[in-house]
Amino acid sequence: MSELTRQTKTISWVDPRPQAEQAMTMSGLDYLRAMQEGTIPPPPIASHIGLEVVDVAEGLAVMAATPDESHYNPIGSVHGGFSATLLDSVCGCAVQTTLPAGTAYTSLDLNVSFLRAITVDTGRVVATGRVTKPGSRAAFVEAEIRDTDGRLLATATSTCLVFQP
């Protein structure tokens, strides 16, 4: 590979374990608001895809990211894993906003539909996750990704397990 085409990307993050412990002492909504305000560092995955928390409310999570060439697959577009990661993040965080302190969640499934290709020319994308049915054992979520012109790029549904660690 020519040095002219080689690019690098540096990723840095904060050890997530102390924040995960802190999350158990706060409501999910308070925890995510603190992350949005910058008083709690984002999880390491945010560094990988440039993920930022845009808005959170009860049953809602909105996040944005701007894809770059490091997210490309072999056929010259952004890998589906970028969208799946973004959708999984807003689904899980939407559920987290409904949880009291001491309660956790994990994704049980994620069903993604890729509707349009994403490239670097797409620019910033915004993902929105909405809880459709909260629960004490399972929560159900819908999510979507749109570009800055409002075009729908991908959708997802997810089920999250709610539990006491």
Number of helices: 4
Largest sheet: 6 strands, antiparallel
Envelope shape: globular
Secondary structure category = alpha+beta
| Fraction of helical residues | 10-25%
Regions with little confidence, pLDDT below 50 for 5+ residues? none
What's the order of the H and E elements? HHHEEHEEEE
Estimated share of beta-strand residues: 25-35%
SSE arrangement:
Layout lengths: L16 H7 L4 H10 L6 H6 L2 E6 L2 E6 L14 H17 L7 E11 L10 E9 L4 E10 L4 E12 L2
Antiparallel strand pairs: 1-2, 2-4, 3-6, 4-5, 5-6
Record keyword descriptors for this entry.
about 160 residues; alpha+beta; six-stranded antiparallel beta sheet; 4 helices; about 25% helix; about 35% strand
Summarize the structure.
By secondary structure, this protein is α+β, with helices and mostly antiparallel strands.
Written account of the structure:
It is a single chain. 24% of the residues lie in helices and 33% in strands. The protein has four helices and six strands. It has helices spanning 17-23, 28-37, 44-49, 80-96, and strands at 52-57, 60-65, 104-114, 125-133, 138-147, 152-163. Strand 5 (138-147) and strand 6 (152-163) form a beta hairpin. The longest helix is centred in the middle third of the chain and has 17 residues, at 80-96. It is globular. It starts with 16 loop residues before the first helix and ends with a strand.
